[in-house]
């Protein structure tokens, strides 16, 4: 039988018990997995670290007065937070009423690091000033409200989290390593991530190879940007071999098509809807492309120059180029695609994938729809100024315009069966009035929003109607034995969708045996219900 002990935090004797059943601590509300305190009368349980063992303590962060235990939470006049870790206080509080100083039990039991003899940010020892005091951190240049580490001789102050910032790191916004410096020198400095001013008096990260490239300390060490690994003393990785070799002017040999050389076409040719890139399986349209001199192999210029491994602004770790026959949903634009993609294994069950068009749009973008350069300043979702969806957006720091990856990657010119000429992407005309009709779906179209237009005939079309959901998927050939996949909707009549019974209007549709489907919303539920699972997992 366990021995009962009387502790000041509870009015009944408690025992040390084993975690025989799942439960949560009545103090911090977190689960417990080790020995804990338990009351056999009221069935309360606590982590050992959360249960106070003394009614009064002396703490090095508050040496002038003793701290007394309160068991009903912090007093009303306090801010309700621990003065060291800033966690919200629960029932057990060590408090000094004279100074209005409060600690939670874990901080009271473990004083932490009061003095740091050696740190990465300063040459002298640093001491914790555990009190409310406004300061500007000399390491990151941002304001703090309490508990700085200080060197009084140098008037140096730093956040606890900044004391040992890594000296050399690699981030997803720059190709080279960057290092921390404590003075940038006078002049106007702009952070390469958030695009805001950097106060040159305080610390920041800079690139030795690119002197104009600078980053706020907080921006560069954000987990969305950097993996946090200290690279000081670590040899630089060898660069991956490029996936192509330059043979001559506008002529390359690519590892995905090594038997023949490819030549660049850059004269603004608008290809029809049968010409596809063999890496991303996207339609070529008016993009520059490499074509094989001896066969029909074609690559987008942007796809041909992509590396086998890269750092992208949406990932803090490198992502790798892979090929697969299954479809995937792009992390950036949410479009479905097949073919090559960049992948990152976040966990055994979760794989994040990025299509090649979005991979080529990294952290900055010059787009014809806006006069200023757009930047990915954060990976928090925001509202696109064009389609109004919430997603990753590229921002204009001058006029607060947002553009999502899907809208940023629409082709500028396309070919469609509805017209003999190419259709040009229009960014909307606020002065347009009157009623206009989409030539594909024959529904009304708002010309104040983005649309496609024939500049010779004047016909217009919704973007979704002109491009469709399956345009980034490799179509199957009608002569193959495969009974399912994406096919061109090029017949004399438009088939009915098996699921919704409406006509299939889009340029590419999905076929299962003799049935046709107009969208993913129609094909996936139907395939799951009536057909073998492999039909909707592979293309």
TrEMBL record:
InterPro entries (alphabetical): DC1, DC1-like_CT, PKC_DAG/PE, Vacuole_Formation_Reg
Residues of the Phorbol-ester/DAG-type domain: 11-61
Taxonomic superkingdom: Eukaryota
Keywords noted in UniProt: Repeat
Coiled-coil regions listed in the entry: none
Protein name: DC1
Annotated organism of origin: Arabidopsis suecica (Swedish thale-cress)
Taxonomic lineage: Eukaryota, Viridiplantae, Streptophyta, Embryophyta, Tracheophyta
């Amino acid at each position: 039988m366990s021995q009962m002990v009387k502790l000041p935090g509870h009015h009944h004797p408690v025992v040390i018990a084993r975690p025989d059943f799942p439960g949560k601590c009545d103090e911090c509300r977190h689960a417990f997995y080790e020995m804990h305190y338990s009351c056999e009368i009221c069935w309360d349980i606590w982590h050992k670290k959360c249960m106070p063992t003394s009614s009064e303590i002396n703490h090095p962060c508050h040496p002038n007065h003793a701290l007394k235990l309160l068991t009903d939470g912090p007093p009303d006049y306090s801010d309700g937070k621990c003065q060291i870790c800033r966690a919200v206080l629960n029932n057990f509080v060590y408090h000094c009423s004279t100074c209005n100083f409060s600690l939670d039990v874990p901080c009271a039991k473990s004083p932490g690091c009061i003095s740091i003899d050696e740190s990465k940010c300063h040459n002298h020892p640093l001491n914790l000033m555990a009190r409310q005091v406004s300061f500007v951190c000399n390491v990151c240049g941002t304001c703090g409200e309490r508990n700085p580490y200080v060197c009084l001789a140098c008037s140096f102050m730093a956040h606890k989290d900044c004391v040992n910032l890594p000296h050399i790191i690699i981030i997803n916004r720059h190709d080279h390593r960057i290092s921390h410096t404590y003075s940038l020198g006078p002049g106007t400095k702009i952070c390469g991530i958030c695009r805001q001013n950097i106060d040159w008096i305080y610390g920041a990260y800079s690139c030795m190879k690119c002197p104009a490239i600078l980053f706020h300390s907080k921006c560069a060490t954000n987990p969305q940007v950097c993996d946090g690994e200290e690279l000081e003393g670590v040899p630089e990785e060898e660069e991956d071999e490029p996936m192509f070799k330059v043979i001559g002017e506008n002529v390359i040999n690519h590892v995905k098509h090594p038997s023949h050389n490819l030549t660049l076409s850059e004269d603004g040719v608008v290809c029809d809807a049968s010409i596809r890139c063999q890496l991303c399986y996207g339609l070529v349209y008016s993009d520059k492309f490499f074509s094989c001199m001896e066969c029909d192999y074609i690559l987008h210029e942007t796809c041909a120059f992509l590396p086998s491994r890269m750092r992208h602004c949406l990932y803090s770790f490198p992502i790798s180029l892979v090929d697969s026959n299954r479809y995937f949903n792009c992390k950036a634009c949410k479009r479905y695609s097949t073919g090559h993609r960049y992948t990152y294994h976040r966990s055994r069950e979760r794989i994040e994938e990025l299509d090649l068009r979005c991979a080529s749009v990294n952290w900055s973008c010059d787009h014809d729809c806006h006069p200023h350069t757009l930047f990915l300043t954060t990976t928090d979702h925001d509202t696109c100024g064009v389609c109004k969806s919430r997603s990753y957006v590229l921002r204009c720091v001058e006029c607060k315009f947002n553009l999502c990856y899907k809208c940023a990657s629409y082709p500028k010119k396309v070919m469609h069966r509805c017209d003999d000429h190419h259709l040009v992407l229009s960014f909307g005309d606020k002065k347009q009035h009157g009623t206009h009709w989409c030539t594909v779906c024959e529904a009304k179209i708002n010309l104040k929003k983005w649309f496609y237009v024939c500049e010779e005939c004047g016909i217009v079309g919704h973007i979704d109607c002109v491009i469709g959901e399956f345009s980034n998927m490799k179509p199957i050939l009608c002569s193959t034995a495969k009974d399912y996949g994406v096919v061109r909707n090029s017949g004399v009549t438009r088939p009915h969708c098996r699921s919704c019974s409406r006509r299939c209007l889009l340029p590419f549709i999905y076929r299962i045996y003799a049935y046709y489907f107009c969208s993913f919303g129609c094909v996936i539920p139907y395939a799951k219900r009536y057909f073998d699972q492999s039909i909707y997992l592979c293309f």
